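May I ask for a protein sequence together with how it folds?
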Amino acid sequence: MKLQTQRWIDRWVGQLLCGAVSLWARLIGTRAPKVDRSRAPRHILVILLSEMGSVVLAGPMFAALRQRYPGATVHVLQLKKNQEVARMLGLAAHEHLHAIDDSSGFRLLRDILRVTLAMRRLPLDAVIDCELFSRVSSLLSYLTGAPRRAGFTPHTQEGLYRGSYINYAIPYNPYQHISKQFLSLVDALESDGAPRNKAAPIRELPSETGLSVPFTAEELQAYRAQVLADHPVLAGRKLVLMYPGGGILPERAWPAAHYARVARGLCDQGHAVAFIGLKDDTALANEIRAQVGSELCVALTGYTRSLRELLMLFHASHLLLTNDGGPGHFASLTPIRVLMFFGPETGKLYGPLPGLRPAHLGPQATVYESGIACSPCLSAYNHRLTFCDGDNQCLKRIAPDPVLADALQALRELPEPTAA
């Protein structure tokens, strides 16, 4: 199903359904039950339908759930196309990972019914809806029959209407990092205040994601050897990866010419550059390579066959330059250094968490933002429908030469690579 079609259905049909369910809930009186702290939840569902990178940002929330409710079974509901992350990170046992296929309207309705029935059979004690932009997740939280339903509410703010049946609701806060807000959803499950997380402790961003993907030294060495065998020009050089694609939101992309300028400067200094992404990103990668004009610049778009392989590639590389998106967040699961560009959205809300990089090598990630008046323009209040006319000045004004200087400095701080 096309993204614009999903947005239209969610905006018009979703609002109508949320209003109808809210009226129904009010008529039958499904208020927030009084918290019985002597009885911990047995089954908790976490709904995370959005992009894969959000799963990494939710890592501290999953850690807090397991610490607070060690005896509970955590279930995770995602879109089918995003489920690889949850499986790889072991967020829940395989049988407790649930998926919805949104490739067509029929499959979406079929899977909503299937998941709803499965949750009601448990029965479910609590649901945490992490979505900001989707009304289908709000409706799902009610349909599961969970007595405790934690999620975001606009209170008196415009936009974000997702029904009034979320009985452990917290106000969405556009000034707090999303990872902190996910943690507040956990606090809300045992809160009697209004708003639900009002008396929660002051949250600081954790020192790490709380997530990890284990690799053996032999596995990483074998993968690096394979990469060098496939691309011999990379041997003996520090490898810089670049992700220039914008994914489903092309306005998030730093200009291709800026990537070319940085790549050319890195190659002139004897470093190797590789462009990553899906096979669909190959044309863009080759366009930039043509501007660079160096044999040290290669395309690895479509090279990695899974997210796990992408993480191994990060382990085999030294630096990642990336637009706002999944790769920058997945990189926090590896020691690679990251330079990440934000514009339509802001790193203050969605910046990558600290990761596995050794402390003596400096920070894991550097976030670049131009700070012009119209940035950021994507929010929970406009459902990521930007008013930008395609001329994304917020990213164009992040000049390439200072980024090149930072990249070269970061590479100087790293040990020289071996030839194999």
The longest strand covers residues 73-79. The chain has a mean pLDDT of 89. DSSP finds 15 helices and twelve strands in the chain. The first helix runs from residue 3 to 28.
